[in-house]
């Protein structure tokens, strides 16, 4: 079967993928992001392209409608709101997962034809502080370097980035570089120990939000130890003295680090010329995120370590097209092509190029304010595309209510049932990955093609086309008469020709005039691509910044005071290795549900002891506006007084585990980015009367207060808890498993609150239900594998017989290797990740679990070695 060359739809690494319609997926050996490798999520893409759960036709008020009816209604409602209440009464909330062509037309419609800048994106929750920090320092939103800089650096500092799980292929490139050059040093700055910390020579568990204090200290030491590049600063930088004064004035003790740790870091940084500082959401998602970004940029500017091989600050982007969205101007405070909304020349040029009736002349509402305006009744029509704000926004329960409060809401998604889609008046079926075509830009400014290799299912349409249909029905026909993504891209490149005169960093005028065939054949290309064919691989080595005087600006930044938590906890949130955001795609792949199958909180042993929380029991996290219930994972990886909870779970998979219910909508005053890593919460045990584990060949349903479901290769499984134990366990089991018929075999010890039910039909096991007063000990993988087979009542033992080993919780999802298998291999003498791979297969496919294998090797006291 022929393979189509496309790009992974998940993270901002932007890996090249070879895909075919039968679900075969391979890494593209020729793509400069990944050279053939894929991580666990990329490798499992073939399992996520099923049509199960897909939205295949437009729906109006939950009834099937034609495209004609649905788009006419959307156009009519938006036009009516604009006519009656003005252009700022409508809004689009879009996504860094849209393709550039989708994003371009959405932005054009809102800013140039509706005449409002009320188009904001989930990138506000993701990259806004980096964008704002870049603009303050460089005069524009530029990522100066390239991925090769990671490999060429002698020191890589990872700040607030769990690269091992969130940008796995970049992490693997870093691991390989460090293996090849063992002198390379890696520092990881994160309040928490993560899979990334394992690679680090130095892990700095700083207090939350004290990054500015640390980098200010570094700047002061750079100055006092004579490491300033005076020539570079004199020629290319403003604001040095003020920034230094602020740095000297700040107190590094708020980091909570020891003097020795601080000195190790300072010496390493100052004495290593080739240093790359990679940063991500631990920096951005904060009420002081923009200042943290500038504190980092200050150190690189003061030393002139920017834009040269192996040197520079590097903001790694989260979503596949976070960068493309920034380029087309998809944020409420930006104009297209890195131009400024406030600049009349910029506005004129864009308006003329678009031949637009109007052009927005003031910033629109940023995400948190946008949903507040929905709650306040100021937004009369809202269109959400390719994002799930009812889950991913802070204060999510109120955001859901705010969306309900909007008189007319449209949601474009690929799925029928999402938490946000449930609130929509109109649901529009979008074509998904593999079905649509366009471009995305990765973290290193590289534009790659996504290409279709599947037919459009049902009545789905690509997002750009849906937007153009509505624009045409609103009366903006000519400007939206595109018939292909290539035509959209051609116009975008032509706009770049018109805006090139402003001399901005972003320039793709060299791609103007690309025809369909050229577009189809477009190879991964880094911008700028200027009309004269020139490019800039790295920016700013010789200055050339984008402020009026071509100089960069160092900012005086003040760290926030470190507040002791007292009774409250600091709630840190983020990601796990095998799920993507609100799980609409990754949770369809059973192998991705094996790694961490339910919402949890990492909590420090001292806190757990104090609160009376035992491992694997449940705890409740309460914020000002709402709460969540998740599993306790007791570990000293998190500091006392803090907990870490993943962001992924939704009403579809674990309604109680929606962590954003407990996160307050506090934002950074400069960027408007929410402080998703720093909510104040209280933590208490959730008093469960019973814990249950269920597996069925049917979807599991339960109204109990804690239910976390996931798909398996044989059906579904769930973890369930309640505060009152049922009287009739068989009835409870049958309802939960959705199995009326067949024969139930039961084991009950009423006195100890233990009940085990297995349901058989025609000699096959259809479902099991294990309940106990304490967290149930069952070999989950083993039991799930038996569903649908001719198992015996022996299954009620919950563990395999002595002749069959229990592999334990999955560590390697590609090769399906469990922790017990790995531990056994280690006690049999495996001492390296490679040796573990040879005897168990773990880590030999995508390699995403290698950091965990490494951690296991470190953790387990080597009994064999002692015996030798
Ligand atoms: N598997 C997977 N990969 C993904 C995604 C996914 O959903 N799943 N999403 C993608 C997207 S959109 C994004 S934005 C990226 C995010 O990628 P990352 O930013 O790497 O991931 P996070 O887990 O959100 O947060 C990173 C770390 O910040 C730390 N942190 C919290 N507070 C602070 C602080 O005050 N200072 C410092 N220095 N660190 C702090 C947290 O402990 C956490 O380990 O991942 C992308 N890749
Ligand atoms: N507490 C906490 N909250 C967070 C974060 C955190 O670290 N902590 N991180 C934040 C960050 S960085 C981000 S990026 C956001 C992500 O949060 P969201 O963007 O809300 O999450 P996704 O699950 O990626 O949502 C994408 C939606 O688009 C749909 N979709 C997929 N493909 C297409 C398509 O081609 N067209 C259309 N129209 N729809 C499609 C999917 O089914 C899904 O419903 O979450 C933010 N929220
Ligand atoms: S690192 Fe993984 S998720 Fe990210 S683009 Fe590459 S294959 Fe996709
Ligand atoms: Mo993100």
Automatic annotation (TrEMBL):
GO terms for cellular component: membrane; oxidoreductase complex. The keyword Phosphoprotein does not apply. The keyword 4Fe-4S applies. Residues 1-53 form the 4Fe-4S Mo/W bis-MGD-type domain. GO terms for biological process: cellular respiration; nitrate assimilation. GO terms for molecular function: 4 iron, 4 sulfur cluster binding; metal ion binding; molybdopterin cofactor binding; oxidoreductase activity. Its cofactor is [4Fe-4S] cluster; Mo-bis(molybdopterin guanine dinucleotide). SMART domains: Molybdop_Fe4S4 (SM00926). Coiled coil: none annotated. Gene3D superfamilies: 2.40.40.20, 3.40.50.740, ADC-like domains, BFD-like [2Fe-2S]-binding domain, Dimethylsulfoxide Reductase, domain 2. Keywords: 4Fe-4S, Iron, Iron-sulfur, Metal-binding, Molybdenum, Nitrate assimilation, Oxidoreductase. InterPro entries: Asp_de-COase-like_dom_sf (IPR009010), BFD-like_2Fe2S-bd_dom (IPR007419), BFD-like_2Fe2S-bd_dom_sf (IPR041854), CT_Nitrate-R-NapA-like (IPR041957), MoPterin_dinucl-bd_dom (IPR006657), Mopterin_OxRdtase (IPR006656), Mopterin_OxRdtase_4Fe-4S_dom (IPR006963), MopterinOxRdtase_cofactor_BS (IPR027467). Belongs to the prokaryotic molybdopterin-containing oxidoreductase family. NasA/NapA/NarB subfamily. This is Molybdopterin-dependent oxidoreductase. It comes from Halocynthiibacter halioticoli.
């Amino acid at each position: 079967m022929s393979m189509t060359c496309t790009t992974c739809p998940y993270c901002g690494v932007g890996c090249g993928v070879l895909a075919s319609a039968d679900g075969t997926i391979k890494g593209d050996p020729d793509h400069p992001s990944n050279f053939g490798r894929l991580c666990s999520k990329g490798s499992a893409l073939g399992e996520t392209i099923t049509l199960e759960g897909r939205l295949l036709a437009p729906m109006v008020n939950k009834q099937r409608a034609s495209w004609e009816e649905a788009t006419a209604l959307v156009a009519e409602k938006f036009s009516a709101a604009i006519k009656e209440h003005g252009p700022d009464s409508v809004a689009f909330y879009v996504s860094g997962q849209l393709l550039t062509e989708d994003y371009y037309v959405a932005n054009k419609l809102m800013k140039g034809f509706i005449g409002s800048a009320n188009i904001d994106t989930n990138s506000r929750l993701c990259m806004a502080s980096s964008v704002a920090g870049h603009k303050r320092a460089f005069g524009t939103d530029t990522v100066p370097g390239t991925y090769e800089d990671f490999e060429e650096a002698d020191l890589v500092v990872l700040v607030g980035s769990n690269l091992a799980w969130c940008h796995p292929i970049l992490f693997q490139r870093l691991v390989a570089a460090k293996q090849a050059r063992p002198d390379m040093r890696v520092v990881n700055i994160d309040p928490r120990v993560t899979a990334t910390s394992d690679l680090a020579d130095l892990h700095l568990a700083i207090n939350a939000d004290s990054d500015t204090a640390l980098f200010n200290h570094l700047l002061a030491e750079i100055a006092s130890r004579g490491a300033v590049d005076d020539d570079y600063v004199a020629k290319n930088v403003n604001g040095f003295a003020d920034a230094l004064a602020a740095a000297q004035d700040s107190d590094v003790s708020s980091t909570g680090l020891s003097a020795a740790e601080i000195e190790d870091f300072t010496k390493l940084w100052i004495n290593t010329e080739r240093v790359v500082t990679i940063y991500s959401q631990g920096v951005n998602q904060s009420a002081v995120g923009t200042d943290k970004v500038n504190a980092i940029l200050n150190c690189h500017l003061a030393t002139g370590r920017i834009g040269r091989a192996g040197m520079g600050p590097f903001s790694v982007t989260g979503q596949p097209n976070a960068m493309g969205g920034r380029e087309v101007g998809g944020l409420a405070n930006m104009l297209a092509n890195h131009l400024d909304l406030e600049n009349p020349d910029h506005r004129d040029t864009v308006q003329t190029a678009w031949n637009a009736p109007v052009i927005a002349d003031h910033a629109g509402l940023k995400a948190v304010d946008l949903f507040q305006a929905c709650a306040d009744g100021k937004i009369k029509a809202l269109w959400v595309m390719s994002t799930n704000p009812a889950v991913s926004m802070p204060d999510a329960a109120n955001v859901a209510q705010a969306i309900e409060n909007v008189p007319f809401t449209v949601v474009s998604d690929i799925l029928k049932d999402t938490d946000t889609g449930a609130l929509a008046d109109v649901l529009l079926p979008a074509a998904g990955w593999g079905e649509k075509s366009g471009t995305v830009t990765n973290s290193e400014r590289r534009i790659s093609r996504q290409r279709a290799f599947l037919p459009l299912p049902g009545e789905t349409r690509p997002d750009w086309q849906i937007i153009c249909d509505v624009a045409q029905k609103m009366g903006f026909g000519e400007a939206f008469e595109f018939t292909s993504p290539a035509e959209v891209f051609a116009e975008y490149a032509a706009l770049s020709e018109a805006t090139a005169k402003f001399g901005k960093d972003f320039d793709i005028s060299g791609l103007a005039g690309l025809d369909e065939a050229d577009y189809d054949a477009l190879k991964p290309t880094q911008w700028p691509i200027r009309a004269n064919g020139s490019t800039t691989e790295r920016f700013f080595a010789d200055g050339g910044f984008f402020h009026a005087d071509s100089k960069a600006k160092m900012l005086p930044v003040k760290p926030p005071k470190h507040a002791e938590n007292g009774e409250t906890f600091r709630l840190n949130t983020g990601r796990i290795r095998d799920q993507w955001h609100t799980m609409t795609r990754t949770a369809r792949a059973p192998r991705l549900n094996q790694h961490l199958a339910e919402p949890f909180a990492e909590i420090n042993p001292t806190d757990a002891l104090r609160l009376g929380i035992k491992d694997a029991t449940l705890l409740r996290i309460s914020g000002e506006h709402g709460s969540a219930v998740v599993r306790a994972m007791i570990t000293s990886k998190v500091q006392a007084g803090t907990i870490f909870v993943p962001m992924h779970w939704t009403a579809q998979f674990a309604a109680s585990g929606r962590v954003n219910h407990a996160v307050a909508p506090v934002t950074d005053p400069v960027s408007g980015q929410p402080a998703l890593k720093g909510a104040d919460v209280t933590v208490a045990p959730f008093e469960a009367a019973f814990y249950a584990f269920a597996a069925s060949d049917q979807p599991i349903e339960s109204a109990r207060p804690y239910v976390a479901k996931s798909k398996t290769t044989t059906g579904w499984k769930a973890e369930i808890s309640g505060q009152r134990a049922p009287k009739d366990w068989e009835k409870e089991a049958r309802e939960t498993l959705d199995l009326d018929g067949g024969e139930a075999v039961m084991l009950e010890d009423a006195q100890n609150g233990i009940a085990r039910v297995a349901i058989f039909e025609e000699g096959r096991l259809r479902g099991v239900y294990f309940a106990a007063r304490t967290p149930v000990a069952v070999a989950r993988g083993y039991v799930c594998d038996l569903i649908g087979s001719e198992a015996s009542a022996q299954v009620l033992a919950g563990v395999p017989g002595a002749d069959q080993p229990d592999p334990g919780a999955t560590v390697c999802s590609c090769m399906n290797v469990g922790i017990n298998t790995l531990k056994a291999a280690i006690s049999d003498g495996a001492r390296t990740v490679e040796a573990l791979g040879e005897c168990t297969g773990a880590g030999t496919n995508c390699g995403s679990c290698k950091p965990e294998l490494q951690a296991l090797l470190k953790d387990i006291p080597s009994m064999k070695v002692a015996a030798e």
